[in-house]
């Protein structure tokens, strides 16, 4: 007797953004199984050499004025084409229009002095030159809304947009006005919510909040961080995600990871809080990390953007290695809730390495998808 073919039921279309009614999804139309293990990157890609100095975070732009606007849009076109060439399912703009994932957003707000920057210690680990908050913070215009509309115009595939999380924002500035990190984070949460709602109107399918600070200020996550994050995501009908990582592959982060021992249990403090939250997807590090995978059992029914690509090394994973990591995650998370992803942003890598890693990501997911199709 033949095994009956189970019907794969994707989550509600509007929430996942993968099967939107208002436009065709070329991926889903080819084969219903491709909705499983949809791939995407955490967010950033390296920038072309004509746009900014490579291998740097916070690199200066190499153009200005209208030329810079045109250059950034051309870079977005390339980032989209590179992800499509790799075979990824959910597309980002590779963060080509922002200098940094946190400070560029802060600099788009009123009440901020970007010219007289301050050197502060962020994430309790490294010095950074950051903008100052000098008065009440507000948002008089969209920060990324026009960029998101441009990204929407480039592809029919689902698109994801990243925003900094409120706690990470409050940790990546010099506060000369509020004097209270929680209060400032709540102000940012309101502002992020306005921005996120306009991104949704612009046709973005998934909105991700980047909260690496959740891995550092563990007590504050339950204290007020989760409340601020949920406020930022309140009322959105698109899929929401939070990215919590151990940072880019820069020296300070690599040394920090070495100090964490054989088992990294930071997620143990945050996963129960996130499991109870309104956020749909949790983006975490798995590849080459010392995170015990049984911690994933604490995420309840959340969807997992599983980091199966290590961004802290130039060594490119083989598709088989990616497949192994995905299989390990599948020991703890149901297949329809696993979304293979990179551990973190790839902005510090070279473009060829980032391209090869994206291809390995898509190919590795395809291996496991094929195995699952055989089982079904
Ligand atoms: Zn990250």
Any idea what the shape is? globular
Which percent range fits the helix content?
Answer: 25-40%
Identify the CATH architecture. Alpha-Beta Barrel
What is the total tally of β strands?
A: 9
Overall pLDDT? 90
What's the end-to-end separation, in Å? Answer: 14 Å
Number of helices: 12
The CATH class designation is Alpha Beta
CATH topology: TIM Barrel
Overall domain count: 1
Strand content: 15-25%
Strand order of the largest sheet: 3-5-6-7-8-9
* Alpha-carbon Rg, integer: 20 Å
Major sheet details = 6 strands, parallel
What low-confidence regions span 5 or more consecutive residues with pLDDT below 50? Answer: 1-33
Describe the structure.
This protein has helices at 13-16, 26-30, 65-86, 103-107, 145-154, 166-170, 181-201, 218-233, 251-258, 266-275, 319-330, 351-375; strands at 110-122, 126-138, 160-164, 174-175, 206-210, 239-243, 281-285, 303-309, 338-342. It is of the alpha/beta class and 376 residues long. The protein has a single domain, classed as TIM Barrel. α7 (181-201) packs parallel to α8. It is globular, with a radius of gyration of 20 Å. The protein starts with 12 loop residues before the first helix and ends with a helix. The model is unreliable at 1-33 (pLDDT under 50). Bound molecules: zinc ion.
């Amino acid at each position: 007797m033949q095994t009956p073919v189970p019907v794969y039921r994707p989550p509600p279309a509007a929430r996942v953004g993968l099967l939107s009614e208002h436009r065709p999804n070329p991926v889903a139309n080819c084969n219903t199984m491709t909705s499983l293990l949809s791939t995407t990157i955490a967010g950033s890609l390296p920038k072309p050499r004509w746009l900014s100095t490579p291998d740097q975070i916070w690199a200066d732009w190499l153009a200005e004025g209208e030329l810079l606007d045109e250059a950034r849009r051309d870079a977005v076109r390339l980032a989209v084409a590179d992800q499509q060439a790799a075979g990824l399912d959910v597309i980002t703009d590779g963060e080509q229009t922002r200098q940094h994932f946190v400070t560029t957003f802060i600099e788009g707000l009123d009440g901020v002095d970007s010219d007289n920057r301050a050197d502060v210690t962020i994430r309790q680990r490294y010095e950074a030159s950051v903008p100052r908050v000098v008065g009440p913070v507000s948002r008089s215009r969209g920060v990324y809304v026009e960029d998101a509309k441009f990204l929407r115009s480039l592809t029919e595939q689902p698109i994801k947009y990243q925003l900094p999380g409120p706690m990470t924002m409050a940790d990546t500035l010099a506060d000369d006005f509020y004097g209270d990190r929680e209060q400032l984070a709540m102000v940012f949460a309101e502002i992020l919510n306005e921005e996120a709602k306009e991104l949704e109107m612009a046709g973005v399918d998934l909105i991700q909040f980047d909260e690496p600070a959740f891995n550092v200020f563990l007590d504050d996550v339950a204290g007020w961080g989760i409340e601020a994050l949920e406020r930022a995501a309140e009322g959105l009908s698109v899929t929401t995600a939070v990215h919590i990582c151990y940072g880019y592959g820069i020296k300070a982060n690599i040394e920090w990871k070495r100090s964490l021992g054989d088992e990294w249990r930071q997620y143990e403090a945050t996963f129960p809080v996130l499991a109870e939250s309104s956020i749909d997807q949790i983006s975490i590090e798995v590849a080459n990390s010392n995170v015990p995978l049984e911690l994933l059992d604490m995420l309840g029914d959340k969807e997992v953007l599983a980091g199966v690509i290590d961004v802290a090394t130039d060594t490119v994973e083989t598709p088989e290695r990616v497949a192994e990591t995905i299989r390990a995650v599948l020991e703890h998370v149901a297949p329809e809730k696993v979304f293979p992803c990179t551990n973190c942003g790839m902005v510090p890598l070279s473009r060829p390495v980032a391209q090869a890693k994206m291809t390995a990501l898509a190919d590795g997911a395809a291996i496991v998808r094929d195995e699952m199709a055989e089982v079904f």
